[in-house]
Amino acid sequence: MDRTSGTVTLLLLRAIPHVIIFLSFLVLWEISIILGWIDNIMIPKPTSIAGSIFKLYVTQGIIYEHFFITLCEAVLGFCIGATIALTLATISSLSGVFKRYVIPYAVVLNVTPGIALTPVVIAWFGYGMGSKIALGAIVSFFPIFVNTLTGLTQVDEERDELFRSLRANKYQMFFKMKLPGSLPMVFAGMKIGLTTALIGAIVAEFAQATHGVGVLMSRFSFKLDMASSIATLLSMTLIGLILFYSMEFLDDKTVFWRRENRLTITSRKRKQKWLKANSLKR
Amino acid sequence: MNVMESAAMGVKTRLNVNTIVKGQSVTKTFADGSVVALSGADFEIEKGSFVSLVGPSGCGKSTLLRLISGLIEPSSGSVNVKGENVVGPRDDVGLMFQKATLLEWRTALENVLLPTEVKRKITHDDEKRAYDLLKLVGLEDFVFSFPAQLSGGMQQRVALARLLQTGADILLLDEPFGALDEFTRERLNIELMRIVTEIEATTIFVTHNISEAIFLSDKVVVMTPRPGKIASVVEVPLERPRSPKMQTSVEFNKLVEHVRDLLGEF
Amino acid sequence: MVLGFRAFQGKHTKRIISHALIFIALLICWESASNFGLLDEYLYPKPSGIFHSFWVIYVKNASIWHHLWVTIGLVLLGFVGGSIAGVSLGSLVGFNPTMRRFLQPYIIVIEATPRIAVAPLLIAALGFGIQSKVAIIILVCFFAPFINTLSGVINVGNDKLELFKSLGATKRQILVKLVFPEALPTIMAGERLAMTAALSGALVAEFIQRDQGLGSLILLYSRNLNMSSAFACIFTLTVLGFFIFKGMEILDRRIAFWTYEAGRIQRSNKKARKTLNLLEVGHG
């Protein structure tokens, strides 16, 4: 208990200078506009932005629906893209023939800017969430595919020799060595993929949509309501942060052996499991 | 017979029913014959003996070890273990390298259990055995630690326990303690000798350290490079159990000198 | 040796032929699926349609060239702008630990934001036209070089730094002889990312503004359900993207040559020859 409260206080203390500087920056910004140093048409006052945020989140509360929709689009798009990517990468790593024939098409997909497909995807999947999810899947596919494939095919010679000396077969090598060893790279790919899926969803919303933060942003921008646009942009940042830290959390839990504190915790858990199992036997 | 005479007994050892590993004109080349790692090696290793392979880089000692282990095949000649031709890795031959190569996502215990896991489903007895092996190598308090939490010496001890878990009676070690500091190395060498005597294993140990080779072994196989070959075999008739103090004796140092002479200008 | 060469050709050609065969087989399946009504002709293009469109827009009407150059021009302009800004600011911040610590939270926030999302904002602020398009691309292109330059500059090995200091190198020498080469591979990686981002940024800008460029063409064709032409444009982008990818790769290999095995050997041989020449001249 004591240790947690200690770290929290430490964090707060370190945050103070940042907060002070940030607030002074905001004050300077506000004053500049009031005094006419900066054109108010292009750049809104911090207070206007705050006002918009308040309006969007509290007074009118219109943002929640759009926020949630874009979030879902990104996550679902990512899930679909990741499933396909992981499957293809796994099969490619196990079958050289499969890999050889899949790779050229994957490279073509990589080199083509996924964003270019947006109008086509909208024509195919309609104006609703479907097209956003589809685009998200398409753009998130490649980073996950290439990272997973690299992770699964990278060769650690000593480990390889170890498993060969124990006469392990191909599938044992895959499940006991290649799969766990590839997890850091897989998660690196998934982090990129998730971020890219969000971009795909938002760009598709810019092109044609009725719901989502991208739509909000477009509407506000064309109405020249800059304060609300920026407020929406900050909401997008929030979505990005939520997605990023969720993936970080998953990464942390799964690839536990890369972090000192997770290592100690897991070690303790295994010990307790064993002690419990052994006391039962007795 | 004093040390020098017995050392001068030279290459051919007596033909022996006790031979457990045998090699005849073993040659290994790489890169389509342009690299000759080992050329025409003939050797016999007695059951239960501790043999070291000593020599500078490029003398083929690691290659020879891998040939005995079955990880690579000879380009010509044959390697026999227990009378059978070596065609691949065997359950009764265990390996240990300079790098512990532990799986970082497994605890020490789970790492030790790896050889058994590969063969069949783990039973509670397997777990108990692995636990006891870790106790044997002095890691009772670190059974559930992960490799990242262990020092180099501790990791090598886990690797040793894993080696013992295989139940192999022929142990092949390639400079296992080479990356560790001298104090840890000496301690582990003594432990190694104790364990090997206890389980009555045949041990083949690769090193480039002449003193270490003589300290540990019954026989020292001296190898020279360009091309890699066995130059000669030196008997080490010092009494067992060996103690570190022996390293200062006259006998010991005469043996070291002898091996150094055999290695010549290399 | 002749036999060996022939054998090598055999395996290689076999591979290429099998790839080509499978590709052609896929095309045939695709075409038949469309002809047999499995794929809606209005929504999904067929290979023959796409080839025809290629012919039309590239040769017959030659309508695509103008848009192609517009997009390429935008990409290059934005890329250069974003790279210069990114690398300079990145190095500035990299050399200044206090500024770096201060900017840390802002960097995290910017990293989480999909930067391409500022497109409508910039268009609203700067108006329709090329200025907003370039601004969007510069903004999108800026981040990767910035972050990579920053990390490249920070991550110069301590032991190497100590070496230079022990040799009595001046700050300027350390910068030029150590920091710059050390950071170069990371910076190049950032540039490659920037190039990809630039292309995406250009397309998004064109989607919104809908006046010129490949992006607006794709949008137009898709709206009119002229899918064959839309795909012809998309494949144009594939080819463009491929050239960009290969171009960046070649550039990377030439500039940060020491990270590539072949580059190392090449340079080492070149230097050996040069030195030998000098020595020979000395001997006369």
Taking all residues together, what is the mean pLDDT of chain A?
A: 89
User: End-to-end span of chain C in angstroms?
Assistant: 39 Å
Computed structural class of chain A? mainly alpha
Whole-number total of structural domains of chain C = 1
Order of helices and strands of chain A: HHHHHHHHHHH
The major pleated sheet of chain C works out as:
none
Number of helices of chain A: 11
Quaternary:
heterotrimer
CATH topology of the largest domain in chain A: MetI-like fold
Task: Write up this protein.
The complex is a heterotrimer of chains A (282), B (266) and C (284). With 282 residues, chain A is mostly helical. Chain A is built from 11 helices and no strands. The mean pLDDT of chain A is 89. With 266 residues, chain B is an alpha/beta fold. Chain B has a domain at 1-92 and 204-266: P-loop containing nucleotide triphosphate hydrolases (Rossmann fold, 3-Layer(aba) Sandwich). Chain B contains 8 helices and 10 strands. Chain C is an all-alpha fold. Chain C has helices at residues 2-35, 47-60, 64-94, 97-112, 119-126, 130-154, 158-166, 171-209, 213-223, 227-255, 261-283. In chain C, helix 6 runs antiparallel to helix 8 and helix 8 (171-209) packs parallel to helix 9 (213-223). Chain C is globular. Chains in contact: A-B, A-C. Chains A and C meet through helix 4, helix 5, helix 8, helix 9 and helix 10 of A and helix 1, helix 4, helix 5, helix 8 and helix 9 of C.
Structural topology:
The complex is a heterotrimer of chains A (282), B (266) and C (284).
Chain A: H1 2-34, H2 46-59, H3 63-94, H4 96-111, H5 118-125, H6 129-153, H7 157-165, H8 170-207, H9 213-222, H10 226-254, H11 260-281
Chain B: H1 3-7, E1 19-30, E2 35-46, E3 50-54, H2 61-69, E4 76-81, E5 84-85, E6 93-96, H3 108-119, H4 124-136, H5 152-165, E7 170-174, H6 182-199, E8 202-207, H7 210-216, E9 219-224, E10 229-235, H8 250-263
Parallel strand pairs in B: 3-8, 3-9, 6-7, 7-8
Antiparallel strand pairs in B: 1-2, 1-4, 4-5, 9-10
Helix pairs in contact in B: 3-4, 3-5, 4-5, 7-8
Chain C: H1 2-35, H2 47-60, H3 64-94, H4 97-112, H5 119-126, H6 130-154, H7 158-166, H8 171-209, H9 213-223, H10 227-255, H11 261-283
